[in-house]
Input
Amino acid sequence: MGSAAGRMDGCPAPDPHDPVVKADANWRERGWPHGPHFRAALSMRQVDDMLRARDATNLQPFQLTGSRHEALAVLYFSRDGQMSLGTLGQRLMVHPTSVTATVDTLERLGFVERVAHPSDRRQTLARITASGRSVMEQACHVIAADDFGLGALSAAEAESLCLLLKKVRRTAGLDHQGTAGAEATEPA
Output
């Protein structure tokens, strides 16, 4: 039998005061696509915004932004702590101009240094410094607080969410694309 809220699938009825449920109702009233996929997508966007804002606040004392932190992470986890700007851009999936600007700032901060490629004079490598390693370690401990901003979830719920999102990533072809530290250990 259904629950007291009238659901046959065992899930609780959507909270009518939830802004995501209200947005879904607005879309339904206009005849637009709506339903659980819409609510899930909108919920992920809201959580992503919250996590980005949280990380920005947590990274600010280290003079890091999300993109600076991600670039440091790629270098930190790379085999030699260095890679060409072109490879760094590929790992970060950003335009070469963006990589240059990020490395410029990290270099000014003393977290990265540019060095000549040992065998190709046309290339410049970005190398993480000892200061960059230190700030990376400190910043990671801060952003890990409260379970990376997902402290409202149990470990089992977080794992379930991860598996569900992995299915979405795989279907979209994103399961082999760069995330800071994930591919950085491959040869540069």
